[in-house]
Amino acid sequence: MRAPARFRLIRDGLSALRTELADPLTPVLATGSAASAVLGSPVDAVLVGSVLVGNAAMSAVQRLHSERAVQRLLRTQEPVARRVTNDGTVETAADALELGDVVAIESGDIVPADCRLLSVESLEVDESSLTGESLPVDKQTDPTPGMPLAERRCMAYAGTTVLAGSGRGVVTAIGARTVTRRADVGVSRSGPAVGLTNRLRELTRATLPASIGGGALVTVAGLLRGTGLRRAVTGGVAVAVAAVPEGLPLVATLAQQAAARRLTAAGVLVRAPRSIEALGRVDVVCFDKTGTLSENKLRVAAVERVDGWDESEILEVAARSALGSRDDRVFHSTDAAVVDAAQQALDDASVFGDVEANNLVPFRSGRPYSAALFGRRIALKGSPEFVTEAGRDPNAVSAKHVQSMAGRGLRVVAVAQRELSEHDARRAGEDSQFLEQCCSEGLEAVGLLGLSDTLRPEATQLVRELRGDGRQVRVLTGDHPTTAAAVATELGLDVAREDVVTGPDWENFSRTERRDAVRGSSVFARVTPEQKVEIVQALETDGRVCAMVGDGANDAAAIRVSSVGIGVASTDSDPARGAADIVLLDGRVGGLTDALDEGSQLWRRVRSAVGVLLGGNAGEVAFALIGSALSGESPLNARQLLLVNLMTDALPAAALAMSTPSENGSEKSEQMDAHALWQTIAVRGGATAIGALAAWLLARASGRRRRASTVALVALVGTQLGQTLLESRSPLVVATVAGSAAALATLVSTPVVSQFLGCTPLGPIAWGQAVGCASAATLLAALAPRVLERIAATEENANGQSTIRKIPTRTSTAYTSRTGGVSARDSVEISDVEIKEAETGESDTLVSVAAGSDTSPNSRATRDES
């Protein structure tokens, strides 16, 4: 590796490490490390510091890996410009262009800069990544002052793709001044604070006062019992240090790393691991249409026949008009769609045959058709207006049919033919102008073709799954409202043309009307990048957790401000990739369901780990406080407490975070979820304190202080490990628990190490006391939640409220089966009243539950809205 590359790697690594050390939990851990050093235990300080730096290093490695993968994606579409000089054209990098340079563009090129077109030859450009318009744009040189971006036909914009023809233009904007770059940086506000780190930060803020307060109470208890000032303060600081959840960042990092690896294997690149957890709480998914839900590729969606012609004959005539000969390249997007349809409907030989075209008249600006001459026969396709005007029968092309197809969001193309005399055929084969003259009269209409954008194969199923999971779907597109409504209907969204909110409508809405629009409307058409941002922000302000999925420059700003930004790695999606937290590789939008499932599973895993981790710390503080009140000082010293946190607490919790819990639990609201977590912490903490306290009292009654301290240590650790197994019995968790127990037994039984920790080797009676108390406390922790549920149910009955039963519902196993996880059956809550109503036919709730419907408020709102 060359020196500059090595230096760049070190610099990037240090920068990523510095970013990770800016985590809000870092000051807490640093304080714990410093406190350990002040207490005269540099080993303890090194252990805490190692956790701090190791956690940041692992996160930094993941960040660098993701950023490099994204940079490799960005480099795949570096455009090359052909600058026109006096000596011809010279290829150069796009960023080397200057204002006033003249560049040449042709079919297949990515436009290197914003250009005012000087000349065109049948030039068509795909501007979907910039405007959202799914159909190709015909370019011309006449000025279009004051027109909207999508209708500036005399301009070609950087990052768009040339589909057909060629042209030349003068460079008017480069770099950050291009329309594409301005759309990318138009909004500087970052998205809302979401993700696992944010939720753990809230937990830390809630538990930190209790940790410090517990240490202070231990000091006060010691002083009241007559303990010396130094010993009382030392014991209090030790408890405060032990109560700091050193394993919390490790749990978060390992869980996010494991989730990111699983998603990468499924074709989903995670740029910001912190965003994975937020995926599980997304309740509204906003999609760009063109290039995201659709492939940005035209297809023949409908064929309308004229009397005497069938579908295969219409497609044959249309396909022949696309080619000059069998080997000619299909350079026009409409031609490509027609040829694909003809190849599917007919045998290749019957479409193209062995007869080469005698002459060809292609599409171009001002010529609304293309035609080919085969022998004496002209095959033509073009606008319905042109075919009607040039046809023998002006009523052959039904205006009603054209309007009906256009109303379905289709681009309508008329197909016609004409038979020439031998003399005219020979002349037309040699003279293109005469062939063009023959195409302007005497045409026989044979049918109509309806062209539309092609939906991705998995798009309809994706939308169906999202709505089935209780998530709402919004489509934000720059396309025409009629086209947007037609595509939404094809996706399964029951949307009429009048239900579509347009960009001009949105501009005229008041704040209240905008709130109502994002609540009740599913499709927004003709919206600008700025309006996409406003729609996403309106959803976030309304209390939704919003994911924005897009692939183009016009989506980048909205991706950036959403709770979770998701980019689709398809052609010309550089700004969307750069702004996204999650990137769906290879255009696989179906990977979104994998990401959402992983986000839901991540929080369930971490919630179990946090319950054990914080519950264990709460139990340690409670035990230390009670012990200090009884004896004048904490039963466990600082080194013993740190050993519990680092070796037999954090590691099992980390294993839980990377494994599947025994029960996934029901999908609950944020408030219920928080209540369940705090209840878990209370139960775990109480069981831990009871187990350790019982063992300590038994040992104090029959032995010395050090022996009692060691028995209490073993019981405390054993209770926590037992509760870990209650949460999950996956191989990883079982192995980690067994390893932690073996490590503790080894440390306690090894004389020198045991003395270093302030312990003493134990005999069979002492081990029996510790294991017995730990087992009893674990059993108590297993039974306590059921007892609490019964008490709550009794109180509800006493107050005249309905009891709550849990009925199993369907489980989505598609993602877990691919990733090898264990899927548990979810539950939903339903009252006795609702069951009774369902049984008597007064309600359809029971039927909905049996069918696997989500009865949460969000899903009900979704069904009401639908």
Protein model, in words:
The chain is an alpha+beta fold. The chain is built from 36 helices and 23 strands. The longest helix is centred in the last third of the chain and has 41 residues, at 591-631. The two termini are 59 Å apart. 50% of the residues are buried. Mean pLDDT is 76; it is low at 185-191, 324-330, 663-672 and 801-866.
Helix-strand blueprint:
Blueprint (H helix, E strand, L loop, with lengths): L2 H19 L4 H13 L3 H34 L4 E6 L2 E6 L8 E5 L7 E13 L1 H4 L5 E2 L16 E2 L4 E13 L5 H7 L10 H29 L4 H15 L3 H19 L2 E3 L4 H5 L4 E5 H5 E12 L5 H10 L12 H13 L2 H5 L6 E3 L7 E6 L2 E6 L1 H7 L8 H9 L3 E9 L2 H9 L1 H7 L5 E12 L3 H10 L3 E5 L4 H10 L10 E2 H6 L2 H10 L2 E3 L3 H13 L4 E5 L5 H6 L2 E5 L5 H6 L2 E3 L6 H41 L6 H10 L2 H9 L11 H33 L2 H23 L3 H19 L1 H6 L7 H35 L5 E5 L5 H6 L7 E5 H8 L5 H6 L6 H9 L1
Helix pairs in contact: 1-3, 2-3, 2-7, 3-8, 6-7, 6-25, 7-25, 7-26, 8-25, 8-27, 11-12, 16-17, 25-27, 25-28, 25-29, 27-30, 28-29, 28-32, 29-30, 29-32
